[in-house]
Amino acid sequence: MKVLLINGSPHAKGCTATALGVVAHELELNGIEAETVHVGHKDTRGCVGCFRCRELGHCVFDKDMVNEVARKFEAADGLVVGSPVYFAGANGTLVSFLDRLFFSTTFDKRFKVGAAVVSARRMGTTATLDQLNKYFLHGEMPVAASRYWNAVHGNTPEEVMRDEEGLQTMRVLGRNMAFLIRAIAHERESSGLPEAESRRIATNFIR
b/e map of 44-74 (b: 16 or more CB within 10 Å)? Predict the structure, then answer.
């Protein structure tokens, strides 16, 4: 079993990476393979609504890791998305990346376990978590919880490592996520997943 962790910060070894590293370590202690990919430094454009992905099976733009990460995401049992807080929201590069990653992929995301991790100097963490969790909820992905909101605080990795409450939150998140992944795998094997409705009902509010 495997979890893919996405570092959406421009900094490969900054505060967000530090938090993700704690989660990844705890996952591995609990028998779950963890792979981290760094995407926050890429020149990632947003979705242009061309719908070519419906014909190609992948995003038409192929130079910024979206399609590469999509293949890893499909093979994974869980996904952790990490972002710094910018103006009480996620890094814009990461948002563009996730918009295209989730929209262009048609593989079944149901019951892959999702979690978001955010880092901030002070404020905006819960708004950013709300923003990131919506990707998982749209894909029928159970969201792993910790004992507090999944955030760390600090301006540097060294400061993050002094945030004892934040680090505990990351450890508990890793353990809880590992448990959920194993529980879902066991239930899938013994009883199968809940019945899926094959036809999506899409309604408009204009009459």
Answer: beebeeeeebeeeebbebeebbbbebbeebe
